[in-house]
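HUMAN: Mind sharing a backbone?

ASSISTANT:
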Amino acid sequence: MSPFSTQAWATNAAAYEAIRTMPFNAELAAGTLSRPRFTHYIVQDAHYLIGFGRALALAAAKAPHPDRIVQFARAAETAIVVERALHGGFFRDYGIAPETFSATPLSPPCDHYVSYLLATAYGEPYEVVLGALLPCFWIYAEVGRDIFSRAGADNPYRAWIDTYAGEEFGEAVAAMIAATDEAAAGASPAVVARMHHAYAQATRLEWLFWDGAYREAAWPI
């Protein structure tokens, strides 16, 4: 039987293609994405990374052996420290003060995604938590590489593109895939089915997050 990751990617291939070609990513690659849309995205993504880091920390707490505890603890640190440094650069360039960021609420798509990841991380077994966390790693890497292949050197979002198309992030993604496949290999069919559901749900939320950034989604009331 093929590994969980192979099955999950194939099952959700159409969803990935919808993400790859959606207006936000098409315009990001072309360098024509408006600054307000990217600003909305980068603020919401900074909020998202806090929740994502917490979910990774919970994965570390549930991990069955020390190597995976270290892996997910380090991934949580990366989400909070390294990736937020990328966002901080854009914040400085765009004049977004810390108090402005703090006062900006999570958008509906961001709130939904973070709530889903934290509920899964608290309430589901380790294997299912990994199924929910994997799309953020893997889809970002694939989108980053795709955009890198067609973006010009003068693209105003070059720092973002280089981060997610880079070798260091690629290594983190490979480690996440390996951990998820390892977890699925020892899980019951019922748990693997829940892993697939979690992966599909998180993939849909990836699309929703980028779509929300393009629409500059906000609470209607």
Observations:
- The CA atoms of residues 11 and 200 lie 8 Å apart.
- The two ends are 49 Å apart (CA to CA).
- Residues 66-94 form the longest helix (29 residues).
- The mean pLDDT is 94.
